[in-house]
Amino acid sequence: MWIVELAFTEAPERLAARPAHRALLTELHGKGIVRMAGPLAGDSGAVLVFDVQDRPELDRLLAADAYFTTPGVEVTRVREWAPFLT
């Protein structure tokens, strides 16, 4: 699994792009690819958990969602995670 951490600014483009982004995440959640996703308190950023095998697969998913390159959204950290409880 992979944890993707985002930081947000108040750029209006981010809010405009959010509905399409959330629709895509909902679709991926239904397929078991996105396990969890949501904003941090205060809407300063977000955390997403992807259940994919490797970093190239994660990178393809991130590249397919324009939200991750939208002004006001910054991917600040990507970490591989090995939970023992799910």
From TrEMBL:
Where is the YCII-related domain positioned along the sequence?
A: 12-81
Q: Which residues form a coiled coil?
A: none
Which InterPro entries does the entry link to? Dimeric_a/b-barrel, YCII
| One Pfam family from the record | YCII
Provide the family line. Belongs to the YciI family.
The name on file for this protein is YciI family protein
Classification lineage:
Bacteria, Bacillati, Actinomycetota, Actinomycetes, Micromonosporales
